[in-house]
Design brief:
3-stranded mixed sheet, 5 strands, 41% helix, two-stranded antiparallel ribbon, alpha+beta, 141 residues
Length: 141
């Protein structure tokens, strides 16, 4: 529990820094969500920056604002003590993929690694409304 609280504080502080740094940006960040079992697997951290509209999200991508937010978020997390290895591809395990039968009825299996690193992503209030009828929980599942 202590590790979870410590990690939560690192993440919350980094997000506050991002909020301050980009408070006058255009388009504006309207909401920030984060989740994951980051106390057990730091690579599982997911951060969502939410703009008002889909057009705002497109503008942020096209102007480089999204990249600036991603870079600043990563820097803020690292400065706060978030594990650096969480930002590199990490194999957390393997999964078996099974193909559909081919024309001869043969099924093939192959092992694929489960690769994970911290995910920083973007969306909009408009997209959440259109895609999930405003249901945040359903949208982020």
């Amino acid at each position: 529990m202590i590790k979870k609280i410590r990690m939560w504080r690192i993440i919350s502080k980094a997000i506050r820094h991002v909020n301050i740094q980009f408070r006058h940006s255009s388009p504006r960040i309207r909401r920030i969500n984060f989740y994951g079992v980051y106390d057990v697997t730091p690579q599982s951290l997911v951060i969502w920056y939410i703009f008002d509209t889909i057009n705002d999200e497109i503008t942020a991508r096209e102007t480089g604002l999204e990249k600036s937010i991603i870079d600043f978020t990563k820097e803020s997390l690292l400065r706060g003590g978030y594990p650096e290895e969480a930002f590199t591809d990490t194999i957390l395990g393997y999964t078996t993929l099974i193909s559909l039968p081919d024309e001869n009825g043969k099924i093939t299996e192959r092992q694929e690694p489960l690769i994970r690193k911290v995910m920083i992503s973007f969306s909009s209030l408009e997209d959440i409304e259109l895609t999930a009828n405003g249901d945040w929980r359903m949208y982020f599942q």
